[in-house]
Design a protein that fits this description.
about 250 residues; flat; alpha+beta; 8 helices
Length: about 250
């Protein structure tokens, strides 16, 4: 992708409504070979082929899917897309079954040259760097994903009832036990200490993560490609320093 915010809708439509050939071409063009996928019902770690199979099985279960991209938010600094989607999922073998759901998918991107190619190749400085999808995480509210396996809205009703009971417990619990909160904090809570990672480890001057600069870097472990960000390493180091100082001062 040259412009993720503009191109992602077309990619989503191809993955969800295209035939098997279109789905495979889209996955191989826009996903990295070690792409990951997370959904309430299944998880794939570091295997683009399995991600393709999930999309193909999804299309087999519901040959005619109606889908709409509602909104797109792009965090250029972290190279992450947030896409809100509505879909109407119908199982062909269950008459009158339909699951209208709304969810948000989070797509983490990496930028580099030909990162969709599983074979190592020499990269030319003249070849432009593009964005590729490194991971997809579909986020469903509980009242949304229960629509897939509960008929006639019964799951939504049960989840709504549970939410009502849990909220009532929170309200009454806070009212009844509120006076005990300061005592509980003194007895059970450790001494609080806050670190500002932004102050100790400021962000890079680069606004766009890339392989070569302060964003995503590619490292090889056990034959698989993994992405590591310089910023995440800095935060990890700060956490380790904090834990060490905390133990020494305890």
């Amino acid at each position: 992708m040259d412009n993720p915010e503009d191109e992602i809708s077309d990619i989503i439509y191809k993955l969800t409504t295209g035939n098997r050939g279109v789905q495979q071409e889209t996955i191989e063009k826009y996903f990295t070979p070690n792409a990951s996928f997370k959904h309430p019902f299944c998880t794939v770690i570091g295997d683009r082929t399995k991600v393709l199979r999930i999309y193909q099985w999804y299309k087999i279960l519901s040959p005619r899917i109606r889908i709409r991209v509602n909104s797109i938010a792009y965090d250029e600094t972290k190279a992450t897309l947030y896409v809100n989607i509505s879909q109407l999922f119908k199982l062909w073998f269950i008459p009158f079954y339909r699951a209208p759901v709304n969810f948000t998918t989070v797509l983490e991107l990496v930028k580099g040259q030909d990162l969709n190619d599983a074979k190592p190749i020499s990269r030319s400085a003249n070849r432009p760097a593009r964005y590729y999808i490194a991971s997809q995480n579909d986020l469903y509210q509980v009242d949304q994903f229960v629509r897939f396996f509960t008929p006639l809205g019964t799951g939504v009703l049960l989840v709504g009832l549970w939410h009502w009971v849990a909220t009532l417990c929170c309200v009454w619990g806070a009212w009844l036990l509120g006076p005990l909160q300061p005592i509980l904090a003194l007895v059970f809570a450790p001494k609080e200490r806050f670190l500002s990672f932004e102050d100790e480890y400021p962000k890079s001057s680069s606004s766009t993560p890339t392989m070569e600069r302060d964003g995503f870097e590619i490292e090889l472990h056990d034959g698989l490609l993994h992405k590591v960000t310089a910023r995440s390493r800095r935060i990890s180091e700060a956490n380790e320093n904090f834990e060490r100082e905390y133990r020494e001062n305890a």
